[in-house]
Write a structure and sequence with these properties.
The protein is mainly α. Helix 2 packs antiparallel against helix 3. The mean pLDDT is about 85.
Length: about 80
């Protein structure tokens, strides 16, 4: 390993705050990825739905999901 990488690893071991922050970011990325997949599935399901009331319900769920995902993306950016 190069010197810079070794120093970064050493700093990570010494700084528990950085390690916990990285873990939190990794978990948030994982959750955001799951939300993106769920959003895609809802869009696909909405496109195939024929019942207007069910379409409206799916549309509301999709809007809520998008809003939550965008909030998460903003929080993730702030953590960096």
């Amino acid at each position: 390993m190069k010197r810079k990488k070794l120093l970064q690893k050493l700093a990570d071991y010494l700084s528990l705050d950085q390690r916990s922050l990285r873990n939190k970011r990794a978990k948030m990325k994982q959750v955001l990825k799951q939300l993106r997949e769920k959003e895609r599935k809802l869009k696909k399901h909405l496109g195939h739905e024929q019942d207007p009331s069910r379409q409206q319900q799916l549309s509301r769920e999709l809007d809520i999901l998008r809003a939550q995902r965008h909030k998460g993306i903003n929080v993730l950016r702030d953590l960096k």
